[in-house]
Specification:
This protein is of the alpha/beta class. It has 14 helices and 14 strands.
Length: 400
């Protein structure tokens, strides 16, 4: 374990993001034994223009004008920095050299805000933890000169359109210059090891405490009352970038006696899909994070109907831990990242596999299996994952 150090955390998600964030969870775990500065991404010019009426952008504009503090204390040992500097929007630039010139300029301005905040907090000999901020991360090591620079990979971002344009060129450079690279799946370890021998698997943390129903106090929502027959459910964002609409449709059409319940916000493709015309498919909409356990409790089978593509193939599906923590039988799509769950889930490759595996799961699930699933999920804590990150950092500290 690393203790009594000053750690700066940067990433691609601000602290006030509305959804769950690995980076925030890691920062909070760091702060149990270290002083931590969590740095929000800087505001760029195009976002300022296009989203200027949004509440979170208005907040940043007030901070930039000095009308609100840029440094805010979240809890003991944990501070959040809202950078004042406006950076240029440069992802539209095609020429690599021109992009790099402006990217370096953006990073210099960003680093000045970070150093000023670190000075106010009295930070010294910092450890820098970068959660996939590849563009700004390319030059940040030079400007901040940390004792250890750790780069964290948890998504195949270079296959996402926004990051792909320059990320396929830049992220390997960031990985190579990092002192240590930590990954939440073996798929990403294989990727980062090509550029940096100090690449480690650190697993994935999950706060499963809210999914603990050992005392049976979690109540199934009233929405389930009118549904008769087995409930096959999914909780999470309904996006065709990650989910297979055809697969969900196939299950619903093949087994009209089953009920498909989908809990989460829909993208445009889901909104326009034929799923809305199927009588045994229910859309419950987006729900607050603290209510998700009650919806999972209403499932007979929990599914992760993932489409396998360049973006999803290596992803650690945190929702699997949430399903397992409630002792629910889980049917999911086979990927390399899912292999660590193979003894506790039913893994399929085809639409037909899903139907057969759901039938199997319905017939053979037991209290003993549920207990094994719960015990397994409870090993995937943020404490365990961050301890693995600490071990990777310490290996670099010893080398230095």
């Amino acid at each position: 374990m690393i203790q009594d150090r000053d750690i700066i955390v940067i990433g691609i998600q601000p602290w006030d993001i509305k959804i769950g964030s690995n980076c925030k969870n890691i920062a909070a775990e760091f702060a149990k034994h270290n002083r931590v500065l969590y740095v929000n991404p800087p505001l760029d010019r195009i976002t300022k223009y296009k989203q200027k009426q949004e509440e979170h952008i208005q907040k940043r504009l007030k901070i930039a004008k000095g009308e609100a503090p840029d440094l805010q204390k979240i809890e003991h040992n944990l501070w959040n920095l809202y950078p004042k500097t406006l950076i240029e929007s440069i992802n539209w630039i095609n020429n690599a050299s021109v992009f790099d010139f402006f990217n370096k300029r953006n990073t210099k301005l960003f680093a000045q805000d970070i150093k000023a905040a670190a000075t106010r907090l009295g930070f010294n000999n910092v450890l820098l933890f970068n959660d996939s901020s590849m563009f700004l991360g390319l030059y940040l090591k030079n400007y901040l000169n940390p004792d250890v620079y750790t780069y964290y990979v948890r998504d195949n971002l270079i296959k996402v359109p926004y990051w792909k344009k320059h990320g396929e060129r830049i992220e390997p450079q960031v990985i190579a210059q990092a002192d240590v690279v930590v990954n939440n799946s073996e798929y990403y370890v294989d990727y980062t090891s090509k550029y940096n021998a100090h690449s480690f698997m650190v697993g994935q943390g999950c706060d499963v405490t809210m999914f603990n129903d050992e005392d049976g106090v979690i109540k199934i929502p009233q929405e389930f009352a009118a549904i008769k027959g087995p409930v096959i459910g999914y909780v999470g964002s309904l996006t065709t970038l990650r989910l297979d609409i055809e697969l969900i449709t196939f299950i619903a059409q093949q087994r009209p006696d089953w009920n498909i319940v989908l809990v989460g916000p829909e993208d445009d493709n889901f909104k326009a899909s034929s799923l809305h015309q199927l009588s045994n498919v229910y859309f419950f909409g987006n729900k607050p994070a603290d209510q998700l356990a009650s919806y999972i409790k209403g499932f007979d089978i929990a599914i992760n109907p993932q489409v396998v593509n360049e973006i999803t193939i290596g992803n650690y599906p945190r929702k699997i831990d949430e399903y397992l923590a409630m002792g629910k039988p889980v049917v999911a799509t086979t990927t390399k990242a899912m292999q660590m769950f193979k003894d506790y889930t039913y893994l399929g490759e085809t639409k037909e596999d899903y139907v057969q595996l759901i039938e199997k799961a319905l017939s053979e699930h037991s209290d003993i299996k549920a207990k094994q699933q719960i015990d397994f999920a409870n090993t995937h804590t943020w404490s365990n994952s961050v301890n693995a990150i600490y071990n990777a950092m310490q290996s670099s500290l010893k080398n230095n």
